[in-house]
TrEMBL record, chain A:
The chain crosses the membrane at residues 43-62, 93-116, 137-158, 187-204, 225-253. It comes from Nonomuraea indica. CDD domains: SQR_TypeB_2_TM. This is Succinate dehydrogenase cytochrome b subunit. Keywords: Membrane, Transmembrane, Transmembrane helix. Gene3D superfamilies: Fumarate reductase/succinate dehydrogenase, transmembrane subunit. Residues 1-34 are annotated as: Disordered. SUPFAM superfamilies: Fumarate reductase respiratory complex transmembrane subunits (SSF81343). NCBIfam families: sdhC_b558_fam.
Automatic annotation (TrEMBL), chain C:
PANTHER family: SUCCINATE DEHYDROGENASE 2 FLAVOPROTEIN SUBUNIT (PTHR11632), SUCCINATE DEHYDROGENASE FLAVOPROTEIN SUBUNIT (PTHR11632:SF53). This is Fumarate reductase/succinate dehydrogenase flavoprotein subunit. The keyword Flavoprotein applies. The lineage of its organism: Bacteria, Bacillati, Actinomycetota, Actinomycetes, Streptosporangiales. Residues 507-640 form the Fumarate reductase/succinate dehydrogenase flavoprotein-like C-terminal domain. Keywords: Flavoprotein, Oxidoreductase. The keyword Flavoprotein applies. Residues 43-448 form the FAD-dependent oxidoreductase 2 FAD-binding domain. InterPro entries: FAD-dep_OxRdtase_2_FAD-bd (IPR003953), FAD/NAD-bd_sf (IPR036188), Fum_R/Succ_DH_flav-like_C_sf (IPR037099), Fum_Rdtase/Succ_DH_flav-like_C (IPR015939), SdhA/FrdA/AprA (IPR030664), Succ_DH/Fum_Rdt_flav_su (IPR011280), Succ_DH/fumarate_Rdtase_cat_sf (IPR027477).
């Protein structure tokens, strides 16, 4: 055997640790809050995710009303606003639900960002070569997917909730906004929507299962069932959300 | 076979480190990966060069001391195999092989491919045990254990503490290691009294060491030489949540 | 090599009287340490395997101030972890006629009447507590559907007394001890020093008072003093270079203690394990053991005809020689290790060996697969088959495994009395590092038993008797400085040679020499040759070894060189011991001493003793004999026919 040695230059970016990490002896218990722990953050992520998934399911069911006619859809939209009436003032329940939703989104993002920062700190020097072995591409696009979905949600609210970018504007019936938003000439809106919904589907395929895992419900016997549930749920949402806009764009719904 | 190795060289914790290329010729396919490195190191020593430092001991896949990231995969692409049990017959003649240490802030590099994994010991210190002084144990048959539980506990207990899970995790998380011990002990009746306090203490220690959080990517279990299943992490999460709910 | 014979040595600590009462008696007569004093007593434990790990944990639990050392990066890596088969205990859960007395009897007989009866009886007594302790710690032993522990018959035992955890019993028991140890580290009773290697023993005023260690990361030489030192540093099988030991296993700690005055007992007793994966080439760095449990269902054979190079499947039944079944019809494939190993060597010497270099025999599961079905075989041995395939690239379900004997365990070690104390007061030696319980041959599944018996139950009691007189005060500074200087100068010397050969190349050559001349079969001629060759090789080592780097860094070449240097000295003593013991017994087979059938022939008249060697700085070792008496088990010639 002969070994010839070629000295190469540094090929990896290197950050030297700034200073020794503080003494981490177990027992020196600085009590950490639940939310400060990585598992606490994961639980926040799972619970807020579950809230949003519940919302998505209801939202999708509502959307499908468009197939029963514009009136049916408008009545549904109206019913949402007068939930609890006449006991409660107009839009009370809906506002509460919206607040819960917004809080969920914020907490979900907060958990995601702090876990991502934690992860970056845990690997200051990157690998020169790194190959994934788990094969689940959906797991690797979670953070990217989350950001994409967020951007879309902003557009979606401007389009169909506030009507700012909708041809019909805010002072119109919800069903009209929907029909106008996805009319064949605005095919690109539909395209953006499709991309976003696919992203949601992918995000949930890992996310829903991940929530089961994080909340400790997964085990050997339930493993397959939970994975299947996550897959079915995201597939159902995908189909349910894509059906109305595609039907409108392709002129099935008029 | 002839190979080109690109090996991470780092003289000490404060050195910045770099990849260095070596040619190794006449490698036998029956050699183990570490034997191939032995041959290279013998050569380097004779030439007065500093041989590549790497950890290893039992060389039969059980002590957990060896471990390097080979072509981007912890312990190499051969599944369920430690680096010492990886054989050269799985490589092509003329291959270029990159060799790097486990990379994680809680596993600082000591030298070349040697890293400090004492964080794992501290996680065990936090609670990875059953408190039982020698001499006080009841008869072994006084507490029967369902075979299914004993087998599942065993599956988790086979962890060798090599750290490949951390090395492979995109988040640098030690969840699989920590969960394996928590699951092993929480499936057995002997582990019940300290079950929740153990989970809390060990997870908190894992965080304190600076490991990342788990995002259930499954990279850990894919490279684990003992195939520790991912559902151990669910068990850990469940125990941890219960501990916090108390 | 010259030696002189010194005075007889006796174990003065074992009480007299009925054997079943001796341990109780000793426990009662041993002085107790005042609980308030324990905190002030410092104990050093070197090694963190089953013996060292369990001892450090137990001593910490008792309240002593313990320092624990290991050369690995974590105490969990010690080589006990690799033990596969199981651990014996006289629980008699099966009701198959087992008892403490039977385990005692089997062990004394299996050791070929070269172990002390008192020690072995205690081992059998304590064995039952070990299982209880391990189960309470959460060691996941194999269980049956009723929830109770499963056992199996192992290594030639005719009762089912071996508890196991798949093929990873050592791992699970070690993790139990490791976890107990880490619990004490967290509690502050044990201070852990990983990546530290013991390089000398500090002896002051006739007592062991500490050790000199090298921090393997920084290279710093450190002094650690204490009231007692416990060595649990394992065996010295790596003197053969190729063995089933871990690469790091070495003799340095016990050898340097020997140089400081601890007697070395029976160094020639080496166990060669019959079922290991054969060597595949020159580069081979270690040998891998396949659990002996494989012999429960596998059949060992070689071709009947010399030089038959057909693939095994093409060799018809009547041209196969199932030699163990043929020679030993009563025990067949389950004969004790030493016998199975030598039989394999004999058929290979006849030219009937298989595989590269003709150094292998078949271990065939064809019949077991036909009888039990592939699934049943896979359940029992699946992980072992996988391991075999990973290493050799051959599938044992389809083609028979090839196996060959390899050095596995060393029964010899530092001489200790019933209290496990060496000839240096305050120096205790436990586990494989001592010589005490296995005689000339260790039975399968007995090493784990002995390591844990010593660490959890025996040492923590007996060390109290010594420590009750302590603390022993300040350590003489001169003794400490002298030990430190000795260590430093040895390191400097190794670094200064700057020759042309690596430490590994010397180690490989020494190992080859030992295997050829002091291996499975030893003759006066071979041993004399070895005793001539070793000093020459050692001289070359000190003139021509190449150690790169410096002493003040992580330097694996330097570590290796220091260990090889000690292996030379040990190898010499091993060969001398083997030369002096002209009988055959257990793992020590002298070709001159065999019966008409080629079996080991003991010479009880002249050799029913322990050979305890005292080091002399002048290079002329002194042999002290400890006579062995058998009151309970009648000495008979072992026969497994």
């Amino acid at each position: 055997m002969t070994a010839t040695i070629e000295r190469g230059a540094a090929t990896a970016p290197v950050r030297t640790p700034k200073s020794d990490p503080p003494a981490k002896k177990p027992g020196s218990k600085r009590t950490r809050g639940f939310l400060a722990s990585s598992n606490g953050k994961k639980a926040v992520m799972a619970v807020t995710g579950a809230v949003m998934v519940t919302f998505l399911v209801l939202h999708m069911l509502g959307n499908l009303k468009i197939f029963l006619g514009r009136d049916s859809f408008n009545e549904y939209a109206h019913a949402l606003r007068v939930l609890g009436a006449p006991l409660l003032p107009y839009r009370t329940v809906l506002t509460i639900l919206e607040i819960i939703l917004v809080v969920s989104v914020v907490l979900h993002m907060w958990a995601a960002i702090s876990l991502a920062r934690r992860a970056r700190k845990a690997r200051p020097v990157r690998y020169v070569a790194k190959k994934s072995q788990a094969g689940g591409y959906t797991t690797h696009i979670m953070r990217f997917g989350g950001v994409t979905i967020l951007l879309y949600v902003v557009w979606h609210l401007l389009d169909l909730t506030f009507g700012v970018v909708n041809p019909k504007g805010f002072d119109s019936l919800p069903a009209d906004r929907m029909m106008a938003g996805f009319e064949p000439s605005r095919w690109w809106v539909t395209l953006v929507y499709v991309v976003a919904v696919v992203m949601v589907g992918l995000h949930l395929r890992h996310g829903v299962w991940s929530a089961f895992q994080t909340l400790g419900w997964a085990n050997r016997t339930r493993y397959k069932a939970l994975k299947a549930t996550a897959g079915l749920l995201s597939a159902a949402l995908l189909v349910g959300f894509l059906a109305p806009p595609l039907a409108i764009t392709f002129g099935v719904l008029k | 076979m002839n190979l080109t190795l690109k090996v991470w060289r780092q003289s000490g914790p404060t050195d910045s480190g770099r990849m260095v290329t070596y040619r190794v010729e006449d490698v036998s396919p029956d050699m183990s990966f570490l034997e191939m490195l032995d041959v290279l190191n013998e050569r380097l020593t004779i030439e007065g060069d500093d041989p590549i430092a790497f950890d290893h001991d039992c060389r039969e896949g059980i002590c957990g001391m060896c471990g390097m990231v080979i072509n981007g995969v912890a312990h190499g692409e051969q599944r369920a195999t430690t680096t010492c049990q990886l054989h050269m017959r799985h490589f092509e003649d003329g291959a270029v092989i990159t060799i790097e240490p486990w990379r994680a802030a809680p596993f600082p590099v000591v030298k070349d491919l040697v890293v400090d994994r004492s964080a794992f010991d501290r996680i065990i210190q936090a609670g990875g045990f059953v408190s039982v002084p020698a001499g006080s144990a009841p008869d072994a048959h006084s507490m029967p254990v369902r075979k299914e539980d004993a087998d599942a506990a065993f599956d988790a207990a086979t962890c060798i503490g090599c750290g490949a899970c951390v090395a492979a995790c995109p988040n640098g998380s030690a969840s699989l290691f920590t969960a394996a011990k928590i699951t092993h002990l929480s499936l057995l009746p002997q582990g019940q009294p300290e079950r929740l306090s153990r989970a809390k203490a060990m997870v908190d220690q894992m965080d304190a060491e600076g490991f990342g959080g788990c995002t259930n990517t499954g990279e850990c279990t894919a490279v684990c030489p003992k195939g520790i299943p991912l559902d151990t992490i669910a068990q850990m999460n469940s125990d941890y949540l219960k501990a916090n709910a108390k | 090599m010259k030696y002189v014979e010194g005075a007889e040595i006796r174990d003065t600590k074992a009480p007299a009287g009925p054997i079943e009462e001796r341990w109780e008696k000793r426990k009662f007569s041993a002085k107790l340490v005042n609980p308030a004093n324990k905190r002030k007593l410092n104990v050093i434990v070197v090694g963190t395997g089953l013996a060292g790990g369990s001892a450090a944990a137990t001593l910490g639990e008792l309240g002593y101030n313990v320092k624990s050392f290991c050369y690995q990066d974590s105490p969990r890596r010690a080589h006990s972890i690799a033990a596969q088969g199981g651990i014996n205990a006289a629980k008699n859960y099966r009701g198959d006629g087992d008892s403490i007395y039977r385990l005692f009897y089997d062990t004394v007989k299996g050791g070929d009447f070269r172990a002390r009866e008192s020690n072995v009886y205690r081992l059998a007594q304590v064995s039952v507590n070990i299982i209880d302790q391990a189960v309470a710690q959460g060691v996941p032993f194999a269980r049956e559907y009723g929830g109770l522990l499963d056992t199996r018959s192992f290594g030639g035992a005719q009762v089912s007394r071996t508890f196991y955890a798949r093929g990873q019993t050592g791992q699970q028991l070690l993790l139990g001890a490791y976890q107990a140890l880490e619990r004490q580290v967290a509690a502050g009773t044990v201070e852990m020093f990983t990546r530290h290697e013991m390089l000398d023993l500090i002896v002051a005023d006739g007592r062991a008072r500490g050790i000199i260690v090298r921090d393997m990361v920084t290279g710093e030489i450190e002094r650690h003093v204490a009231d007692a030192v416990v060595l649990a540093t394992g065996g010295y099988g790596n003197v053969f270079f190729l063995s089933t030991n871990a690469k790091g296993c070495n003799t340095t700690a016990i050898w340097r203690a020997h140089e400081r005055g601890a007697y070395f007992a029976n160094p020639c007793y080496t166990q060669i394990h019959p079922t290991c994966i054969p060597v595949s080439g020159e580069y081979q760095s270690k040998l891998t053991l396949m659990s002996e449990s494989l012999r429960n269902d596998g059949r060992v054979w070689v071709p009947l005809r010399k030089g038959d190079d057909r693939v095994p499947g093409d060799i018809p039944e009547d041209e196969r020689d199932y030699y163990l079944e043929r020679i030993y019809p009563a025990f067949g494939n389950l004969v004790p290790r030493d016998i199975a190993s030598r039989a394999a060597k004999n058929v290979c010497d006849e030219g009937r060996g298989v595989g590269p270099g003709g150094l292998g025999v078949y271990l065939d599961f064809r019949d077991a697969i036909n009888r039990l079905g592939r699934d049943a075989v896979e359940k029992k041995y699946g992980n072992l088959f996988e391991m075999y395939e990973r290493i050799t690239g051959e599938n044992p379900y389809e083609t028979p495994m090839r196996i060959y004997p390899a050095v596995h365990y060393t029964m010899g070690g530092l001489w200790v009395d019933y209290d496990l104390q060496s000839t240096i007061p305050g120096l205790f030696v436990i586990g494989e590092a001592n010589f005490s319980d296995h005689g000339a041959n260790r039975l399968g599944a007995s090493a784990l038993m002995q390591g844990l018996a010593d660490g959890y139950f025996v040492l923590p009691t007996t060390i109290g008797d010594y420590l009750a007189a302590g603390p022993f005060g300040e350590v003489d500074e001169e003794a400490v400085a002298e030990a430190e200087i000795k260590v430093r100068s040895k390191i400097e010397r190794l670094l200064s040679v700057n020759g042309t050969r690596t430490p590994d190349s010397f180690h490989r050559e020494l190992g080859r020499l030992m295997w050829d001349y002091c291996g499975m079969e030893r003759t006066e001629e071979s041993l004399r040759k070895a005793l001539e060759r070793i000093p020459e090789l050692r001289a070359e080592f000190w003139e021509n070894v190449k150690v790169t780097g410096t002493a003040e860094e992580l330097n694996q070449v330097l570590e290796k060189a220091g260990r090889v240097a000690d292996f030379f000295d040990l190898a010499e003593l091993m060969c001398l011991d083997a030369l002096v013991r002209t009988e055959s017994c257990g793992g020590h087979f002298r070709a001159e001493s065999q019966d008409a059938d080629g079996e080991a022939l003991r010479d009880d008249e002249n050799f029913a003793h322990v050979s305890a060697w005292e080091h002399s700085p002048e290079g002329v070792p002194v042999l002290h004999k400890e006579p062995l008496e058998y009151e309970y088990v009648k000495m008979t010639q072992r026969s497994y026919k």
